[in-house]
Input
Amino acid sequence: MTTITKKPINPTAHLTPEDVEQIGVELDAIRQDILDSRGEQDAAYIRKVVDVQRKLELGSRAVLLVSAFPPAFVLGTVGLSVSKILENMEIGHNVMHGQWDWMRDPKIHSTTWEWDNASTADGWKHSHNEIHHTYTNIVGKDNDLGYGIMRVDEDQRWYPFHLGQPLWNFINACFFEYGIAAYDLELGKNLKVPKEKRSEAFKNNARNTLAKIRKQATKDYVVHPLMSLPTGSFVPTLVANVTANVVRNLWTHSVIMCGHFPEGVETFEKTSIPDHETRGEWYVRQMLGSANISGSKAMHLMTGNLSHQIEHHLFPDLPSNRYAEVAPKVKALFDKYGLNYHEASLPAQVGSAWHKVVRLSLPNGWLATTNAKNLPGQLKLLSTMATGNRKVRRAAQARLEQLARRQSQVAKAA
Amino acid sequence: MPRTTTLPFPGLVSPDHRERPLRRLALGARRHAAAVAEALATPLVPADYLDVFAPLRPGAELRGRVVAVEPETADAATIVIRPGADWVGHVPGQYLRIGVDVDGVRQWRAYSLTHGPRADGCVSVTVKAVPDGAVSPYLVHRVRPGTLLHLEQATGEFVLPPSADKLLFVTAGSGITPVIGMLRNLFPVADSGVVRLPRSADRDIVVVHLAPSAPTSIFAADLAALDEAGAIHLVSRYDDTHGFFDVADLAELVPDLAERSTLACGPAGLLDALETHHETAGLPLSTERFRAAPVVAGEGGTLDFTRSTTTVESDGSTSILDAGESAGVLMPSGCRMGVCFGCVVPLREGAVRDLRNGELTTAVPGETPPTGVPIQTCISAAAGPCQIDL
Output
C-alpha cells in the first residue's frame, strides 16, 4: 500500500470539492434517519445481548466447575470463549463508543462501562475513540496502523528486523489484550523517557492498567479455578480460561486486522490532510480507509458488527444493530461517486491482511518479483540485504526495482 | 443518662467481642464471601449478574414492577407498583422519583404519593397524560403490568399534612410550583375537567397566591381552573392592583385562618414574616425556601460537563437538563418543573438563570464552596460559560 497522494492514480481524483461536500450531506442524512428512528427496539436489542451474554458466561462458568469431566470442559470452554467475544465486541467496544448513551441507562453507558479486557476503559476510549477514529489511517498519526511495531506502508523504510514482523504479529494476536493495554499506554514511547521524567498522567494510567490486569488475571487464573478445586477441576478450569482468552484475542485481532489492513484499503499522508478537514473530507477518508467483512448474521454479531467497518467508521456512535440497515445505502453512495466499497469474506480479508504483513516484512518489491524459478537468487539477495549495511541495502533495493521494471515490460510484451 | 456510641462493626470492635466469637466469625465470613464474589465478577460487580435474575431482591438498586394500571378517566390512570425489597415506606404527600424507559430512553419524573400505606405493600401514583408529554402518556396509555421501573425512596419535607383537611397554601412567584405538584396530584385535571378522587374529597383548600402583577403562566392558569371547578378557593393578590401584601392582612383574606394548617413557599422575606406571624398566633406552618443570588451575566453559553468530558453550546432559553441530555450526558432528572430537586448537580464555575423568574445563580471558585453550587438543571439555563460537575 502507498499513501493515497503518492499513488499513480489517486482514487479520489475524480471528485470535485463540491462532490466531497455533497457526500457529507448525503451521509449526514443517512445518519439522521437512524437517529430519528432509534428507540424501544434498539434498547431491547442491546439489553437482550447483555442478558444472553451474562447467562452464557454464568452457564459456562458453572459447567467448568466440573471440567474434569471432558465434555464439560469442551462445552464450558466454547461457551466462555463466545461469551468473552460477545462481551468485548458487540457489547464493550460499542458501549464505550457511546452507541447506547442515548438510552440514559447508567448501566449501559460509555462513561461507566468497564470491559473484560486487560486494557482499561479509559485508556481504550482515548486511544481508540479519540485517536484512531479521528486520524484513521493517517500514517504517523493513527497508531492502529501497525500498532507502532510493524511496517505497514511502502514509504516506511525497510530494516532487516522487519523480517520478523509476521511472527510478532502472530504473537501480538495471541496476547492481543495485553498488546492493546500497552498500546493504550503508548508504552514504547513512554518507556524511552527516563523514569523520573515520566508524566504523572502516564504513571497514573500505568498503575490503573496494572491493577486491572491483576484483577483480570486473578479472576480467570486463580479464583475461578479455585472454585473448581472441590471437583478436582482446578487445572481444566485454568486451561479453559486461558483458552477462552487466547481464542478471544485471536478472533478480535483478526477482525480488527480486516478493518484497515487488507490490500487495497487506503492510507493517507500526514501532510495531505488539511488543518481544518471538512466533514465531507473526513467522511471520504473514513470511506476509503476501512474494509468490510461479508457474512451471516451470526458473523456480524460475533464481530461486534465491525464486519460493517465502513459504516462503523462513518457513524461510530450509531447503534451497532443498525449498521446492516444503512450498509446498502452507504454502498449505493460509493457506487454513485465511483469509489471502491471494500468488502470480502472473512477468510479473504484475513488472508489479504496477512499477505500485506508478510509483503511489507520484506523489502519493497521482493515478494512481487519472486517466483519459483528465481527463488534461490532472490533469497541470496534478501540475505545480502538482511546482513549488509545501509549502502548494500540501497544497492540491492535498486536491483529489485530494476527487476520489477523488467518483469513488467516482459508482461506487457506478452 | 449513660452515653451511648454506635460502632460501625459492633461485633468486631466492641469490648465484648470475645464473648461473641460466632457473630465475629459470621461477619468475617460474610465479608470474605463478598470479596470472593467481587473477584469472581470483575470488571462487573456481583449485582450485575444477580440483576439478571432478581431485580427486586434486597440489596439491589431500588426498582419496582408495575402490577396494575387503573384508568381514572380517558387520559388519567393510577399506576400500582410493587417496590423492591428495600423500599422503606413513605409519608402521604411525599413524592416518588420514577425512572421509566420510554422509547428506549430512561426518563425520570417525580409523582406525589398522596395515599397512605397500602395493605398490599404496593405504592401508587395517579398520572394525567399531558399532551406532547414524554412520560405521562406512556404511563397512562402504554405501560403494561410486568414492566420494570426504576425508583428512588420517597422524599420531600414539604408534605401534605395527612390529618389536616383544612389547608392554606401561601405562594409567591415561583413558589407556586411545589404547591401545583401537590394540587395536581390531589385533583388531576383531565380533558373532561378536574377529576374528584375519593381520597381528596374531604380536603378544604385555600390558596393565597402573591405576584407582582397578574401572571400568565400555566401554573396560575391551573390554579384558576381548580378554583373554577370548586376544588380549591383561590385568593390572588397582585402588587400592582392590590398593593404590597402584608401578612397582617391574612386573617382578613382567610377568615377561618385559625382552623387551617398553612404551607408556604416563596422568597425569604415573606417566609420570615409568616413565621413570625404564625408563631405569635400559635398556628401550624411548614415552609419551603427558594434561594437567589443576583449577579450580572450573559444569555446562554458553553456548558462544560467536566466528568463526562462533554461540552455543548446552549442558548439562554434551553434548560441545562435538556441541553445535557441532548448531548448524551447522563443527567439526573425528576419533575422537570423545578419541584423535586432530583436534577440538582454542582455548578463549579459560571452563572445560570432560573427560567421561571430570571434569577441568577453564580459559582465563583474561591468564593463559593469548592464542591460547587448545587443547581436545578431543569429550570436553569446557561447565563455564560458554565462548568458542571457531572
Observations:
- Chain A touches chain B through 33 residues (CB under 8 Å).
- Residues 200-227 of chain A form the longest helix (28 residues).
- Residues 99 and 318 of chain A are 5 Å apart (CA to CA).
- The mean pLDDT of chain A is 92.
